[in-house]
Each structure stands twice: as C-alpha cells, then as structure tokens.
Fold each of these.
Amino acid sequence: MKIQLQLYSILREALPSESKGRAVLKLEEGATLADVLKQLGIKRRVVISVNSVLERDHSRQLRDGDEVKIFSSVSGG
Amino acid sequence: MANGYNGKILHVNLSEGKFRVEKPDETFYRKYMGGSALAMYYLLNELGPGIDSLSPDNVLVLALSVLTGTPISGQSRITAAAKSPLTGAVGDSQGGGFFPAELKFSGYDAVVIKGKSKKPVYLWIKDGEYELRDASHLWGKITGEAEAIIKAELEDNKIEVLQVGPAGENGVRFAGIFSMSNRANGRTGMGAVMGSKNLKAVAVRGRKRPAAANKVALNELAKWGAANLEDSDIAGLAKYGTAETTGSNQTSGTLPTYNYNSGVFEQWEAIDGTTMYDTVLRGAPEGNQDRMGRDTCYACTVRCKRVVELTEGPYIVDPHYGGPEYETTSTFGNYCAIDDLPAICKANEICNMYGMDSISCGATIAWAYEAFNEGKLTLEDTDGLDLSWGNADSMVKLTEKIAQRDGFGDILAEGSERAAKKIGRGTEAYLITCKGQEAPAHMPRVKRSLSVIYATNPFGADHQSHEHDPAVEDDLEFYKERLAVLGFSEMQEPRSLGDEKIRFAAVSQRMYSAMDSLNLCQFVFGPAWQLYGPEDMVALVRVVTGWNDVTFDELQKVGERRLNMMRAFNAREGFDRKDDKLPNKVFQPLIGGVSDGWKLDRAEVETAVEKYFEICGWDVSTGIPTRAKLEELDLDWVADQIDL
C-alpha cells in the first residue's frame, strides 16, 4: 500500500531536501505508524495526524491512501 | 568578581538625578539568586501600595541573575518588573539578547529605577561608571534609529541598548522594553512604566566577564549542550523557530483562531515555522537562511531567533527588526484568521520599531475583529478600517495606529479590557483576558492545567509560567528521568484536570519561577523537552557560584519565594481570589476541528484552583499566602507587610 507523507520542521531532514518533507511511502500491508517512524529513522517524540485527525496510538495500522503528517513535539512560545 | 555576580546593585533616582551603589552580601544572592525574585525584593521594599503605575512613584527593576553572562547557552536574559499599568497587579517580563550579558560585564547585577526625570534622559553605564545623558533628541525615535544614534554619539558600536520606543513614550499600556530593536521584555506594560519616567534607554558596555567557581566544569556543561543540540527535542525549534509548533498545535486543536472561538485554523500552513523558513527568512531565496536568517543571544548555540527580510511586495520588512515568534504569528495570524505571512511579519516589525508586546497588541486587535464581525463596532468606530476576519491590511494599519495612539488606536492602546469597558455594547463577552492581560496562544480548553495557571498567575495570563500538559499526557518514556526529579511518573489523561495534573502545574510552575529568577531561557532549560534538564540547572548554579551544596529543592524554594512575594504584592494592591478568574469565553465550546465542542467546566476549575491554593500553602478562601508559608520561605518580613 501507499500513504501520503508530510513531515514538518526538523523532521523533513529524514527525506531528501528537495522533497520539502513530502513523499509517497510504500508500506507492507498492516504497517503501523511505529513502522513509519522506524523506516524514517525518527526517534524524537512527535505529534501525528492521520487524515487530519490527531493519532496518539502509534500501533495504529494504516490503510492505502492515508495522509500522515508528522510534527515535532514541543510546547514552546 | 565573586563567582558569577558583581555584588553591586545600582539605584537611580531620576527625579533627583542621584545614584547609589548597594553591595548586598552573599546570603542575599543565595536567597533570591537574581532576576524576578530579586526584583520582587525591591518592589516590595521600595514601592508603596496603591500608587499610580504611570506616576513617578512606580519603581522599575531591571535584574540579572548570578548566572548571567557566563559562557553557556540560555543564560543571557533579564527581568523587567514594576507595578503593571495593564493589570494594576505586579508586572514581570523576561527578555533575552546580548544586553543582559553586557550589563553584567558593565559591573552591575541589577538597576533599580525610581522617580521621573524632568526631561528625557538615557542611562549610560560603562565599566562601573554611570551617568544620565540628555535624550531629548531621541524622544519619538523608533528603536532602530535611537539605538544607532546612541552608539554613534558614544562612539562604540558594541554598546548594547535597552530602550522604549514611541509606544512606551505614549503610554501604550502593553508597551515593552526592547534591546537590539527586536528582543522584548514584552509583557505587562513595562515599557509604559519606563516611558512614564522619561527614561528613553539604558546603554551599557563593560569588560568585566563573570568568573565561574569551576570554569572547567562550566565548559564541559556548555560543550555537552552544543554537542547534543542536534539530537535534542529543541533542534526543530532552533532551526525553524518557535512557530514550528503551529502545526502540532493545529493537530491538537489548540491553535487559537477567531479570537479563541476555535482551536483550528484551516490556513495554518501559510503561517507556520516551516513556511517561514522556506519563504521569508533572510537568505531564503538563495537557500542561505541558516546562516543569514537566524540570530541568537549571547553565548547561545541554539540560534532560535528569526530574521525576516522582505524587499518587495505590499509589505517591506527590515531584517533589523527580527522576525515573529509563534505567539506573534498566532495573535496577528490565526487569532484574526489572517493567513498573510508578510503582513504578520510587518506587524511584528511595527511592534519592534515602536516597542509593543505583540501578544497583547495582536490579541487586542483580535478582540476588535470579533466585535466588528458581531456588529458591535462599525466603520465609524474603526476610522473606516474594515475589520472583517482575515483582513490583513487593516490589521497592519491598526497596529501602527495603536503605537501612535491615533484615533481608534488610542482606545486599543489601553488594552482590550479597558477598551471593552469604554465601548460597552456587550463587547466584554469577547475578552480573553486574565487580570486584564490578554491570553497567549495556548488554550486552557485543551491543555487544562493552563486554566489554573492563567487564572491564578500573579501577572495575568501567561504561557511561560509552568510546563504544559503534553509533557505528562504523552509517552513519559522520553522525559522519564527529568520528570522524576520533579516527582512525576504517571501518565495523565488528555484534557484531565485531576489532582496529579494540578500538582504538576504547581510543581513545574515553581521550576519555571526559579528559572525566571536565574534568568534562564525556558527553551534551553526545563523539566522535559528542553536542551538541559533540572539536574543540569542545579549543576550550572553549582559550577558558576561555587555553592556546591545547592540542591534542586533549594532552587524550587527560590521559585516558590518569588511566587509568594508576587502574591503578597498583589494582596497589598487589593487582589485576592475573586481576581483569580478566567474569561467567560473558555466556558463556551470551541467550534470546529479536533477540539470541536471542548469547553471548561466552571465548578471543575474552581475546585482545581482551591486544590492549587492548598498545594501552594495559601489561604484557600483568599488565595493570599499564609504567615506559616511565608515564614517557611524565610519571608517573615513579607508577612509583616501584609499584616498577617
């Protein structure tokens, strides 16, 4: 399956710079958000939305066509 | 210099043109450490209750800590404190840059300013020497111009200047005090106090670097921070600025939009930190923004400050005035449903040129936008400005009118609470103020510990007075060791306001209060995601001061001391529990997105505030510190002041 991926801020550096954090990611059926983070090498604490809805559970299985956005997680002002 | 501090406080009486140098002993520095706690000591002792905050009777304290000026990230910050013309309560504001370190190098740990000069002056301090100089030719100048003139006439381009802009001169109640023309002691109207004293600026230069008790250990701590920055949770904030948090706040439903009526902004991506990095930072068109579009404070390797340059289009922006923080992109952006990033950068530039707090300024404008959109204000009221949601041009024009107290801007220059009172017509319903200060861009309906802190904070709604809920609502594994130092190990339910969450608010508030007394940056030091944790903070105090028996508990006591002195100050001014309240708006449901329908419950917040008072050791019925608590903190003299 394929998902639409968008990374923001420093997380963009997990992808080639010309991609500006955007990618279509090919995943095995049943892959989870944790698998995505592992594949990208992201070890930081993050905030994730799937199809524009906040998802705290990283064991969530993804579906073909899902749109995943990943942000770093700080509460700065 | 004895281990981090000069041991000298400069007292200035502007009415008499007289100076006094006080030399407190080591016990004084160990008890108050500096910054905000030290400032409170002088406010309580030298400022009588009930005075007019814009009269010569007010006292303005500019204070550094025992750590300021040492070569490590996150230490070059300064407290400005006085009675606030915005709230009538204690005023307190923190700012960074190079001025704080340079003031330390000039020979003083704090400056206590009384009275009012007959004509505009500026204070010049160099290598321990001081004088008041005529500032008549600087009055009315914007920050960048005044700074350049001072440096030219003193013939030294390395002078650092802390000043008020025209907004402070004009008594805008949320005017700030600025250095480098882009670093703000923004909140609570300290610039209006300084302007009311006819004090245009403080210029400093010095060669006296503070000596650390253990220079080798200090260098090791500094090197550790530099080496670990890239892998830390603030790496993104460093490179993309504080506005990198816009997207995560949107996703969590805590991005205040339509003047706090919604927690989501559909066009958030147009104004977030990543877009800023790609489009408006100086050097972005050539891909040189990391080198040209970021700035820093003295000795700080984080480099989180933004430098925006726009040379074409409807809004030209001079990089001298820096770039917007998350708070600024929010108040001028999502608060007003404005997605025009260049316009937001322009409003930020105007705030820095004229010297205004961009939180209160943008939020006051957002209040006017809601009143206009609800038909309570008309074009006749607004000098013909169309304040329809999303109108960027009117927002920019209104920002300048406020600074100049021109027409409708003169009403808004009083802050939203006074403006609502003057206008009436039910516009009080649109306020988002606590104790008269406009709320920053973090929402208590989502991050519920903010409800207790916004309501009770002595200087009004503030987002940098405790650690926000996400630190204990998500996977604690990341910050397990740091949170354990504060005594927390249990994950909390999102949007909960139970006992443990309230305890977390109170305990982390003490740590933030200690950091404001040590003048440490809250992105660099803190209890969770910051570069350095609580044990590093203890280590830093030890290696700089040589107080090798200092513990985290002792620093927490300093933080608690500051908070208790602030509550006592407010008690002298007649504030009590009745003033510890939230705006009505937060008890109404949010509209749209992930946080649709979320609201606070009055009874739950009331109970939480009571529990918070209990944890603090304050009288639950009044919210005023008890004599027992003040004596425990070695503040008997404060208990005597408020007749306990």
Amino acid sequence: MKTRIANVGPAAACFGLLAALAIPACAGEAVPPRSGYEFMGRETRAIQDDDAANPGMLWVLDGEALWNRKTGPAGRACSDCHGDARASMKGVAARYPAFDKARARPVDLEQRINLCRTEQQKEKPLAYESKDLLALTAYVGRQSRGLPIAVAEDAQTRPFLEAGREAFNRRQGQLNLSCVDCHDKHWGRRLAGNPIPQAHPTGYPIYRLEWQGVGSLQRRLRNCLTGMRAQTLDFGDPELVDLELFLMSRARGMRIETPAVRP
Amino acid sequence: MARAIINLPASAKRGEIIEIKALAAHEMETGFRRTQYGAVIPRDIITSFACTYNGVEIFSADLHPAIAANPYLAFSTIATESGTIACTWTGDNGYSLTESVAISVA
C-alpha cells in the first residue's frame, strides 16, 4: 500500500508489528491513513451516520435551496449553468483545491463558488464562514460523499503542493510546533483529553459539536494556528489554500464524508 | 430554507412501532454568554416541542438552556392509522415552527 504520510522513514520493518498491535507506537511511519471519524466515540459516529440526525444536513438543504435560487443582476442560479448538482457536482469536491488558470494558482471550493458568483452571477462574493457560503459548500461537497479524494498532482499544482508541504512541516508560533508534531508524530494520543487525529480533511465543511455549527477547513486550520500560538492567516490567504491542497493530496484515495460530524 | 428535518417511515403496518426523528435548526443561545464587551447575549432558545398524530398529542418535551444548538429528538409511537404526524417547536422571541409528514398505515 502506498503511504500518504509526509515524512516517511524506513517503515516496512515495523509495519507488520504495528498492524498486529494496532497502536500508534510508530506514528509517522507507513500505516493506512485514518479518518477523524475513526477517532470518534460511538455516539458521535451515530450522529454522522444518520442523515436524519446529522445537523450538517440542515446546511446541505439550505445549500440546495440556494443552488436553485436566481440571484444577482444576471438573474442566474447555480442550476441554470450546472443543472442538477447531484449529477454535475458529483466528485467535484474530491478534486478541490483545483488549479485556476485565470488566477494562475489553486482555488478551494469556497473560492470557486465565489468566483462563479462574481463572474457568472455578477453578484457580490459571500463572506467566508457566512451561512450561505457554508451551505453551498456543504451541498456541493455532499455530492461527492463516498468518492475518493483525487486532487490534481501535476506540473501546475506541484509548486503549490510543495509550498503546502513546507507549511505543514514548518515549526511556527510561540510553542514552536509544526503540524507534523501533532498529526504525524503523535496522532492517536491525546491533547487536553481529545484524541489527536491524522489531519485528513475528508469531511469538510464539518458540523463540529464544539462550534455548534458548520465550519470550513480554513476555520479548522486557523484554530490550529491559534492553538500553536502562531500568527493566524486571514481567510482565503494563499498559504491556507496551499495547505488545504497539500492536506487533500496527503489524504488521496480517502472517502469524502461531507458533511462530517466532529466533536 | 430548511428549518427542520423530520424523519419517519413513509409507510408502516398497523400496530408497528415506528421511530420519529425531529431535528430543528436553532441557535439555542443560552442567555448566559457575554460578548467581548461584557454585554449579556439575550436568551433565545426553543422552549417546547410537541408532536401530534392526526391531531392527538403523542409526545412533548420542554427544552432548556443547556440543550445544544440544533436540538435533535427521537421517540417512537405505534402506527395506528394513515394520516399526518405534525411537529411544533415554540420558543423565545415568538419562535414557532410546524412541520408535518404524511404516513400511510396498511
């Protein structure tokens, strides 16, 4: 099995033992990637597993209404160009962030929705973390549920992918931590009572019980930066998008769970 | 916009126990939190929930500030006849929402 973990050392030797013991003793080595879902308790899993209980579905339903609503001076709805999202948006979220030729850099799903909004609908962009943007993202993301993550890793995206990898490995903040320190070296252990997951963005936007609402991957990343006592980046900062791209590439092949529930 | 999701089987056998799941979109602001300037954020919660089956109340609940946002309630009843199951949420600031779902009982 191909490894998806960033800083892989000589891993084969301990792999068999690790699988048998099923403990993260060799964390950072080649083990199958695990979704945050697997670190959750039974009750939290049950919320995600049942669409009638998953509050993220409220956002998905809002997103469906917005998808079909005409807006802006152009008087166009998303559905006027893209038709039925269940067909046209299938697998799209699994490919984002994707390279945008006009901007000459990758854009994430939120930015893509806002680009469509400003260029096609001639409407003002939606604010990051606004209810409408989260709803549309959740609705588009929902159409990819169960599909494997497959962001492009080609000559166009590689520089940004490498920038994201560099950001993931870079120590920063007053605690002098990098993403690797928690999510590669110590996943499965606990931080303030909560299990540390492997940081695979399989279910964004997520309904987080702590937030009592839906939030984007960038919100999560900014949370982590605050926790590291590092300088938080603004929503939409290119470095955050590069990091999103790297994380999606690191989670390549994992199944989309949107809208996932996390504790 | 979706304000609530009610889930129950579309059809059931007479006498069968069916599960009803009701999820409402609501902030459930407790009234205990403050803004960064120290001002109390006024309470805004759902205070009661009731479910009727062809007009007869089969389940009700009082909700309180400690209940999380987007409250989810699941309960069961016995399918007796075809008709409508209606859920009503009422709360602070005149909040009131009624959603109904049809059920056919054979």
